[in-house]
UniProtKB/TrEMBL annotation:
Enzyme class: transferase
Name recorded for this polypeptide: Trehalose 6-phosphate synthase
Lineage start: Bacteria, Bacillati, Actinomycetota, Actinomycetes, Micrococcales
SUPFAM superfamilies noted in UniProt: UDP-Glycosyltransferase/glycogen phosphorylase
Gene3D superfamilies on file: Glycogen Phosphorylase B
Amino acid sequence: MSTAEFVVVANRLPVDRIFSADGEEQWRTSPGGLVAALEPVMQSVDGAWVGWAGQPDLEIEPFVFDGIRLMPIALSEQDVEEYYEGFANDTIWPLYHDVIAPPQYHREWWDAYVRVNRRFAEAAADTVERGGTVWVHDYQLQLVPQMLRELRGDVTIGYFHHIPFPAHGLYAQLPWRDQVLRGVLGADVIGFQRAQDATYFLTAVRRRLGFAVKGSSVAVVDDDGSERHVTARAFPISIDTAPYLELAARPDVRQRAAEIRASLGNPKKILLGVDRLDYTKGIRHRIKAFGELLDQGHLSVQDVCFVQVASPSRERVDAYMHLRDEIEVAVARINGTHDTMDHTAIRYLHQGYPREEMVALYLAADVMLVTALRDGMNLVAKEYVATRADNRGVLVLSEFTGAADELRQAVRVNPHDIEGVKEAIMTAVQMPEAEQSRRMRSLRKRVLENDVTAWSSSFLGALERARSEHVRPEAE
Ligand code: GDG
């Protein structure tokens, strides 16, 4: 295939491999904001996407899907265990989320991370045209920017980090801390979710590598002694609002929301949590708070039902298996104590649902509980707000999410403070409609004005400025 002007590099391709009833292989766009945000850009500028198809030991030739050229990266079973489940999800993920679970440091995992990052960087280098642009995504690929720069000095490189960046005291634990910083600094523009993440990153760069930092600009000295300026700052991600608005207005989806309420016994209030089953999301904390409110008689199952969707995630990583057991024991205890024949305390669903059903749940929910202990952004909070066209409903939002920087009219909580979570739940359940409406109006304004297209345009604009400011000798 010929080369492309604009290349996205992400761990996953934007498609899922499925099989039709007669066993024929097919591809389907995977749901997610990133694809939606980049699709218009990809269509308009001749784009390609480098990523893994999601299954081990799958060798697939490049192909075109929906006008986007897809360049599949093959990962062996061992790569998946060591690079993906190991280094990405059992070293970096817990370390960058404030060591909520203990990060595992294994040298073989690091070796696999380097090996697989190089594979992605080489594929990107083979795909991008002379003087083109490459946008690398997320913590699985932190070494790609530098590796790509070494292969292709003519290319403009962006990197966006979807998860938090930790304070220096924690980051310093990483045995490969300097290599990772150098890897990311291969980019011309580095994007984070929150200003705080950018600040922590810049502190680590100054303290560990000794580079001069001025505002959001780092003077990086490369191995050959040359200096270049890298920008690192916040570009808070958002959602593709259109499908949420459309689904929320559709009669069948609204009907489904009414059915959900009826099937829960028509409680006065429905509380909702929607998360991947992940220890960063604070699911245990919200279950504990809700259970105590029932135990103490502040709430009753006749009046209030809590629906928790916990979609299956990283099921082969130990910490996730333990978390699932803990949550399921806690739910069973509370339900065992409080359920009646007609009402349940917690409707717990360890399943994934189509987007229509998620929107019906958002419409049915009077209170949305987002109690993450640490979260890069948290798109669920923004999705809930987008669907609430009648300005009713209350968002309870952890201050440790990126979304908390923007969604100031939510009921804010510190999820570690169980009494505080209980108070926030009671405030939300009892909030008068006029106050719900005042807050929701302001939240919706924020989300609708700052959608995912605004995010990608803002990042790509910064990248374009970087390109014009740094005229590269190779590109002249
Ligand atoms: C990472 C960062 C950052 C969940 N269950 C189902 C389902 N979902 C959808 C939600 C939402 C998405 O998955 C989850 O996004 P979050 O932002 O809440 O969290 P992470 O998966 O941890 O994402 C995060 C994000 O990257 C983007 O930068 O915000 O901080 O951790 O869209 O709706 N969707 C469907 N069925 C489910 O069962 N259809």
